[in-house]
């Protein structure tokens, strides 16, 4: 008997074509600086994912691109085999695999679209294709690429491994653990029917309203520290983690808070007790 052949899903085809588009850009532009070449390839792949998301009417198609693209880029940039390159690559892969798995765990297929994109579609003041292209896809791609700028000197430099690298390992490793722990605690909380309508106020969520976002932001600061350790001349790539802070502090956090305020009457009091991102001593004492 012949084996059962699964027909490729639209999402699979979209990511495959996106990858091919990226490699086509790389092949078509020899001699361009690798950083610029990577940016062009990244944008080309993003445009393919955007086109696919419009075709299937689901902007969530972009979500795994956020976590997969950095790992691919880090692998492509890994020109050496030193301690720093190995550590950075392992940390990026750990972050990427965990975050992508977390997305896959909650995504229910093309019939399900993230509530944020549904809300943006309903409340938009511009054509949906423009909101999707710029707000959901291009801006995040550019912010993530900015965050990756510090990875370039870390992967290509030959400066000796030092104390700043040790600090970067601690920061980045802690970020991955914080994000993973926060997501696991949230999944367990949401899975309990007794918690329906309640606000998660335990574990890391006792000290931060969005510890998963805090972990994500911290990860990119760790990447910048690796770049700084490899070549202090690349200090200006601090623009990457700063852009990440701005994205979460002024877009993601307010959006999540507004939704919770609309769904949970006591969330306003929760906001007064618990800080949005960074814990502080007063938040802990107020819960004791």
From TrEMBL:
Pfam families: DUF1295 (PF06966)
Keyword check for Glycosyltransferase: no
Coiled coil: none
InterPro entries xref list: UstE-like
GO cellular component, one term: membrane
Assigned keywords, A-Z: Membrane, Transmembrane, Transmembrane helix
Top-level taxon in the UniProt lineage: Bacteria
Gene3D superfamilies: 1.20.120.1630
Bilayer-spanning residue ranges: 12-29, 35-57, 126-152, 233-253
Protein name: Steroid 5-alpha reductase family enzyme
Source species: Actinoplanes lutulentus
Top-level taxonomy: Bacteria, Bacillati, Actinomycetota, Actinomycetes, Micromonosporales
């Amino acid at each position: 008997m012949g084996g059962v052949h699964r027909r490729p899903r639209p999402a699979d085809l979209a990511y495959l074509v996106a990858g091919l588009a990226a490699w086509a850009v790389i092949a078509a532009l020899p001699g361009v600086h690798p950083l610029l070449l990577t940016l062009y390839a990244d944008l080309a792949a993003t445009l393919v994912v955007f086109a696919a998301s419009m075709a299937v009417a689901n902007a969530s198609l972009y979500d795994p691109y956020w976590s997969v693209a950095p790992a691919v880029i880090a692998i492509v940039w890994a020109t050496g085999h030193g301690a720093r390159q190995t550590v950075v690559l392992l940390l990026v892969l750990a972050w990427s695999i965990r975050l992508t798995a977390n997305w896959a765990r909650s995504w229910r297929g093309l019939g399900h679209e993230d509530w944020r994109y549904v809300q943006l579609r309903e409340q938009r003041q511009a054509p949906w294709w423009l909101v999707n292209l710029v707000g959901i896809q291009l801006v995040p791609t550019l912010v993530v690429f900015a965050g990756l700028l510090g990875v370039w000197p870390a992967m290509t430099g030959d400066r000796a491994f030092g104390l700043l690298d040790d600090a970067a390992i601690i920061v980045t490793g802690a970020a991955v653990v914080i994000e993973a722990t926060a997501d696991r605690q949230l999944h367990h909380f949401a899975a309990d029917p007794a918690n329906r309508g309640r606000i998660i106020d335990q574990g890391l969520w006792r000290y931060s309203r969005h510890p998963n976002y805090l972990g994500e932001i911290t990860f990119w600061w760790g990447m910048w520290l690796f770049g700084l350790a490899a070549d202090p001349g690349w200090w200006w790539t601090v623009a990457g983690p700063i852009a990440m802070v701005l994205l979460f502090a002024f877009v993601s956090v307010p959006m999540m808070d507004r939704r919770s305020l609309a769904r949970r009457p006591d969330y306003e009091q929760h906001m007064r007790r618990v800080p949005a991102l960074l814990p502080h001593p007063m938040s802990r004492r107020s819960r004791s």
